[in-house]
């Protein structure tokens, strides 16, 4: 009975969910997983997950293996799987382990169809987005300007920023706007692979170069020739591999592991890290020469708490995305919700905002608006005098102005005539206000 | 942790990594025959042939069916691929003792008769290997019991 209820609950959610036992055989597969993959539950239960998904990750960076190795759950890792009709599908996955006492007895993976989740009805090229990035703050606009300016360049880029600030989106935007946008774009997370496999993944290997090398295999740099490679969490790279990366940045040459033939590859490198670079340089964890090679174009993404005016467009975007994904039309916020959202500090940045809103969205079962009491109370306890607090603070007054202005601009798709009309101010006053609040340069 | 991580490495055919995890898992639970069965394959692939022989004998003297009952398809057994590679290498290395033993071990996951033949070939090259002699005896008895039935 309990199992039946569990299955009903898991079948009612739009995320694909599957569980595996400790042998990596599938023990559970929900309805959404059937829909996303095209496989029927009865055909996959008891089968090895690698035989069903046939993903490259199964052989390089299996998410469950990563959780086992790092003892940290996986959130939002992008991957590609093969569907029942042999098409490749991009998904975003979360993974964790199932324990019996202290011993893992299996793993559970939830996944989303990225094509479906990246709401096709949202126009990513409208005024309010820059190649899929949401945000109008001055800091973000400066970054968009920089990305546009460097479109012609092949110079390496180093993106820094706290976890959840959207470093990968910035990397994607750089690739999309570059001259290399029609060529291969390969991403690799340097922290996911064991140290001894990373060099082989990046530079390839030849048969017999190490025990498991049963045939020649090109590395990611070879596959990305004439294109772009995104090295996420680059500072986690072992020092020995950093030397090889330095060489390919300096000379464009490398050797496959176990081979003496020097190969070359023309690759634009975009790297990212969320760690304190100064500390990593001082402790010797990250090579100084490599840092200077990578840091030709530095991009620092500010944390969300330093650009709170982006919270409103981001919140509206996430609401659209969830409405599309959950097939439930909730596109507005009850008054007071923004006050709470704007007063929170977001240590987990945009990813945390997204999670907070998804939590509230899922909890909203009646009505068409996100209500204050649906927000997670441990993070945003509602206060009665919030409005008063806002009005008493000079900073918050400015923020309130900004909220009003951005909300109206968003509503009118950043059409300045319509916004001025709605706010009953002249177009010049609107322009002046936008400039004052850092919404335009 | 170790057994499950070892299982993933084994599925990904990363035998040296799987070997490390399985050895740790076996230290924690020395009677885990599911781990032993895969660890033997890892040993043959990373050249630890003495350990491979010892562990192989440990399994077959306890219950030879643990290996014989392997279904290459259902169990995602790498042995058919490994046999193809080893037999090719054996040809290149002109009947090396190590290759013959490795093939004897790996063949048991697919076909007991072929396994015995390779061990007999290996015994010809090294008649003083007492462990090999014991392995041949167990396999011979097994074949005999099959023929009787």
Describe this structure in words.
The complex is a heterodimer of chains A (441) and B (149). Chain A folds into 3 domains: 114 residues, Beta-Lactamase (2-Layer Sandwich); 174 residues, Rossmann fold (3-Layer(aba) Sandwich), CATH 3.40.50.300; 131 residues, Helicase, Ruva Protein, domain 3 (Orthogonal Bundle), CATH 1.10.8. Helices cover 41% and strands 19% of the residues of chain A. Chain A contains 20 helices and 18 strands. In chain A, strand 4 and strand 5 form a beta hairpin. The mean pLDDT of chain B is 89. With 149 residues, chain B is an all-alpha fold. Chain B is globular. Chain B has 9 helices and no strands.
Architecture of the largest domain in chain A, CATH level 2? 3-Layer(aba) Sandwich
Helix content of chain B: over 70%
Main beta sheet strand tally, sense and closure of chain B: none
Q: Give the helix level of chain A as a range of percent.
A: 40-55%
Q: Mind telling me the CATH class of chain B?
A: Mainly Alpha
Strand segment count of chain A: 18
- Overall shape of chain A: it is globular
CATH fold descriptor of the largest domain in chain A: Rossmann fold
The average pLDDT of chain B is: 89
What number of structural domains do the residues of chain A give? 3
Radius of gyration of chain A: 24 Å
Q: Proportion of β residues of chain B?
A: under 5%
Mean of the pLDDT scores of chain A? 86
Strand residues, percent of chain A: 15-25%
List keywords for this structure.
heterodimer, A: 441 residues, Rossmann fold, Helicase, Ruva Protein, domain 3, 3 domains, 41% helix, B: 149 residues, mainly alpha, Serine Threonine Protein Phosphatase 5, Tetratricopeptide repeat
């Amino acid at each position: 009975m309990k199992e039946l209820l569990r299955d009903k609950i898991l079948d009612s959610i739009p995320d694909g969910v599957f569980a595996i036992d400790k042998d990596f055989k599938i023990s559970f597969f929900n309805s959404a997983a059937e829909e996303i993959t095209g496989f029927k539950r009865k055909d996959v239960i008891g089968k090895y997950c690698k035989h069903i998904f046939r993903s490259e990750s199964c052989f390089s960076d299996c998410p469950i293996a990563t959780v086992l190795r790092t003892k940290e759950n996986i959130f939002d890792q992008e991957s590609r799987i093969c569907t029942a009709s042999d098409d490749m599908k991009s998904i975003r996955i979360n993974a964790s382990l199932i324990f019996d006492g202290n011993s893992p007895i299996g793993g559970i993976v939830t996944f989303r169809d990225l094509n479906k989740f990246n709401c096709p009805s949202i126009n990513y090229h409208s005024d309010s987005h820059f190649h899929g990035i949401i945000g109008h703050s001055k800091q973000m606009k400066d970054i968009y300007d920089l990305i546009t300016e460097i479109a012609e360049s092949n110079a390496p880029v180093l993106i820094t920023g706290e976890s959840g600030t959207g470093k990968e989106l910035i990397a994607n935007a750089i690739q999309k706007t570059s001259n290399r946008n029609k060529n291969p774009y390969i991403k690799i997370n340097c922290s996911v692979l064991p140290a001894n496999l990373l060099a082989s993944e990046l530079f390839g290997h030849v048969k017999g170069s190490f025990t498991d090398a049963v045939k020649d295999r090109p590395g990611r740099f070879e596959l990305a020739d004439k294109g772009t490679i995104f090295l996420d969490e680059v500072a986690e790279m072992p020092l020995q591999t950093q030397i090889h990366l330095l060489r390919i940045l300096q000379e464009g040459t490398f050797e496959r592991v176990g081979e003496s033939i020097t190969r070359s590859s023309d690759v634009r490198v975009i790297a990212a890290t969320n760690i304190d670079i100064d500390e990593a340089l001082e402790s010797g964890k990250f090579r100084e020469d490599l840092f200077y090679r990578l840091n030709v174009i530095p991009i620092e993404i500010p944390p969300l708490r330093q650009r709170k005016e982006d919270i409103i467009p981001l919140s509206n975007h996430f609401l659209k995305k969830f409405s599309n994904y959950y097939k439930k039309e909730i596109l507005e916020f009850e008054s007071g919700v923004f006050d709470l959202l704007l007063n929170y500090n977001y240590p987990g940045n945009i990813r945390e905002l997204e999670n907070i809103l998804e939590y509230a969205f899922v909890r909203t079962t009646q009505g068409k608006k996100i209500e204050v009491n649906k927000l997670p109370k441990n993070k945003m306890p509602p206060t009665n005098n919030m409005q008063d607090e806002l009005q008493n603070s000079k900073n918050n007054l400015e923020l309130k102005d900004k909220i009003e202005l951005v909300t109206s601009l968003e509503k009118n798709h950043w059409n300045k005539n319509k916004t001025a009309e709605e706010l009953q101010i002249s177009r010049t006053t609107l322009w002046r206000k936008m400039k004052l609040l850092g919404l335009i340069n | 942790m170790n057994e499950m991580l070892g299982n993933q490495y084994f599925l990904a055919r990363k035998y040296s990594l799987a070997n490390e995890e399985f050895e740790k898992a076996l230290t924690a639970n020395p009677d885990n025959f599911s781990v032993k069965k895969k660890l033997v394959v890892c040993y043959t692939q990373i050249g630890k042939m003495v350990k491979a022989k010892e562990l192989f004998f440990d399994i077959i003297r306890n219950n030879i069916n643990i290996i014989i009952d392997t279904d290459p398809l259902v169990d995602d057994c790498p042995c058919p691929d490994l046999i193809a590679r080893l037999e090719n290498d054996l040809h290149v290395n002109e009947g090396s003792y190590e290759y013959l033993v490795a093939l004897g071990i790996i063949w048991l996951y697919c076909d007991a008769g072929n396994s015995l033949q390779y061990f007999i070939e290996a015994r010809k090259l090294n008649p003083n290997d007492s462990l090999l002699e014991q392995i041949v005896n167990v396999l011979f008895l097994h074949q005999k019991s099959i023929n009787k039935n």
